[in-house]
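Dear colleague,

Thank you for sharing your sequence with our group. We've completed the structure prediction you requested, and as agreed, I am returning the results in plain text so they can be pasted directly into your records. Please verify that the sequence below matches your submission; if there's any discrepancy, let me know and we will rerun it promptly.
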Amino acid sequence: ALRARFTAALESMTCLVIGGSLPRGVTPALYVELIGLARERGIPVIFDADEPNLSAGLGAQPDYVKPNRHELERLTGQTIDSRDDALAAARLVAARYHTTSIVTLGKDGMVALDGERAYYLPALDVQVVSSAGAGDAVLAGLAASLARGGTLEDGLRLGAAAAAAVCLLPATADCRREDIERLLPEVRLERLD
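Please find the predicted structure tokens below.
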């Protein structure tokens, strides 16, 4: 039933965000199948999961992957203590899976690697009430930009503003549009290459 509904949804899909844990009895091969179906139709795919789902889904070469520091450490076996460490690990992912990596580092911001272009976005200085769901906000910002035909850079900026807005509220992955719009001009996108 899930496959049938997913296949029907592909007809109107402008961007696919897929990830998370899978129910008991469902193998990570489901990610490979669903990502593959979207890629066959030229739909941009953003993937976010932890091991063992992360390495399995990456085998289908999603356009973008958004691990956090700990997920990337488990995938690569490398310790990530700095943005340079995150960028080095993202380069390993790019070489192996041919995907653009957006690595969220919590209070240390995020790095992104798109081919030879590397970016750093420092975390915005906000009063953090709860950071639960901030990574999901990065996904949402990137997906909103891609669905409208925007650039990766626009998506990173929007995702960073949305993540900061999520941190202002106590609920998980909740934010206000006015906070995102207010914070967006404060986002800094630095080229590292």
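Summary note from our side: The first helix runs from residue 2 to 9.

Kind regards,
the structure core
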